[in-house]
Amino acid sequence: MEYKVKVVNAVSDVPQATWDALARGEGPFLRYDFLNALEQSGCCNEASGWIPQHLVIEKAAVADQSHANDRLPISDQSLITEQALANYQASSNEEVFSASDESTVIAIIPGYLKTHSYGEYVFDHSWANAYHQHGIPYYPKWVSAIPFTPVTGSRILTREEAPFSGALLALISQAVQSMGEETISSCHWLFTNARTQKLLGTHSDLLTRYAVQFQWHNYEYTSFDSFLNALTSRKRRDMKKTQRKLVEQGIHYRHLCGNEITDEVLDFFLQCYQATYLKRSGHTGYLNEAFFHQLRDTMANNMLIVTAFKHDCPMASALFFYDDSGLYGRYWGALEEVSGLHFACCYFEGIAFAIEKKLPLFNPGTQGEHKILRGFEPIYCQSQHQLFSAPFHDAVASFLQQESAHIVAYFNQAQDVLPFNNDITPTLKTTNTTNPLLAVNNHNEKTI
User: With pLDDT > 70 as the criterion, what percentage of the chain qualifies?
Assistant: First the structure.
């Protein structure tokens, strides 16, 4: 088959039906509406350092192959270079066909040119510094990721039957290196799920990096109390004590979804979100009002806002997203600091909602060892990296060998202090998690 790789500068350059058909079942953050809102609101553009450069992969076939190479699509839109195509023909056993008007999209890869490393949550500032010290620019780089959203998921949206080979991945790599007027230093696939890892596994040049997040799993709990009963008696008492103290102060919560998320509700959330960001970071957040309002207009049925009240006065708010794949806690803010309120509003209320809706998991966001004692288990996350300078690529490979061992040790330490009682501990997903370093996927791991 002939593969044609195009770069599109906006989600809206792809028909929504095409995008969402390939993203079906992949969670709320890969939906057309979510990514389009980031672009339409100006959260992802040249000024923000998140420049949309999505890859669209098409395949086409015609019966007549006699002059196939005469009609191959080498154009401004296609990023398949003649050399890349020659490499593909030499390395592939598949037949190469000429272009056809019946080309179909087989895959979409959400991607961005980055002029910094903020909002990714896979921290490579030391790599950038190493480039800088040698007088070589690290930016721009290209990442396949969901901006400001460290949630594991697909990075190659494709149909189950779509063929992916090392040759096609080589073409994608060529496409990335051909972007823009400046040299692209590197290619990064962030927070990839198992399916994307499998598709990328045919690309021998990719390095794997591990990280740890904390995630709550629903073990068929019937109520929040049934979840508490799965904890040790001490942790159960601690959580009930936190809840009781908040109730004694007159604090209660409202869960609002869909049409219940009125302008008033959303504007109060924005007030809390921006005030908290301003206090902690000196700015009002990566995401603006236009983004949240557009999401409310297009994805309200996938949004949950938990508003905390002190008596009848709202004082804090948290925004979550959800679908059948799970609940995802993203943004939070409070106008008044109250001990235990963050945990209650962002974690306890999220757990209660996930149990009520029978959702399989609750991902509350990145980092935070404080989540462990509240029933969130450590999980491994992966990202894949290719630096186009061989010496730097090899240096990063050595660094990742050392880092990976520390990540595994950190995971094991977190596992050791989980607050579950002996009845449920043997069934925990964490208990059955395999050390990722035992699976040799690329040369980054072979010497560990």
Answer: 87
Euclidean distance between CA atoms 346 and 257, whole angstroms: 16
Inter-residue contact 425 to 418 (CB < 8 Å): yes
Q: Give the helix/strand (H/E) hosting 332.
A: strand 326-334
Residue 91 pLDDT more than 90?
no
Q: Considering the chain, what is the average pLDDT of its residues?
A: 87
Question: How far is Cα 417 from Cα 21, in angstroms, rounded to an integer?
Answer: 42
CA count, 13 A, side-chain hemisphere, 309: 8
Question: Taking CA 363 as the corner, what is the angle to CA 46 and CA 299, rounded to the nearest 5 degrees?
Answer: 60
Distances (CA, A) of 282 to 18, 273, 277, 279, 319: 40, 13, 7, 6, 21
Residues 6+ away with beta carbon under 8 Å from 443: 204, 397
pLDDT at residue 162 greater than cutoff 80: no
**Could you give the CA distance from residue 420 to residue 177 in angstroms, rounded to a whole number?**
48
Measure CA of the first residue to CA of the last residue in the chain; give whole Å: 38
In DSSP terms, 420 is beta-bridged to: 231
Strands 2-8 and 54-60: antiparallel
Task: Go through 3-34 and write b for each residue having 16 or more CB atoms within 10 A of its CB, e for each that does not.
Answer: bbbbbbeebeebeeeebbebbeebbbbbbbbb
DSSP state of 49: T
> In what side-by-side order are the strands of the sheet with 112-114?
50-52, 112-114, 141-144, 186-189, 377-387, 207-217, 361-363, 326-334, 313-323, 303-310, 251-257
Distance of alpha carbon 348 from alpha carbon 121, whole angstroms = 24
Q: Is 57 helix (H, G, I), strand (E, B) or coil?
A: strand
Q: Is the pLDDT of residue 207 over 90?
A: yes
Phi, psi of 372 (to 5 degrees): -60, -50
Ramachandran category for residue 285: left, alpha or beta (phi over 0 → left; psi -120 to 50 → alpha): left
Q: Distance (Å, rounded) from C-alpha 134 to C-alpha 89? A: 37
For residue range 376-428, what is the model confidence (pLDDT) as tens digits?
Answer: 999 999 999 999 999 999 999 999 999 999 999 999 999 999 999 999 999 99
- Locate the DSSP E strands across 364-436: 377-387
Q: With beta carbons less than 8 A apart as the criterion, state whether 315 and 309 touch.
A: yes
Q: CB–CB of 255/306 below 8 Å?
A: yes
Listed in sequence order, the residues at least 6 apart from 37 whose beta carbon sits closer than 8 Å to its beta carbon are 43, 291, 294, 295, 298, 299
Closest to 381 (Cα-Cα) out of 172, 113, 189: 189
Nearest Cα to Cα of residue 434 among 278, 210, 238: 210
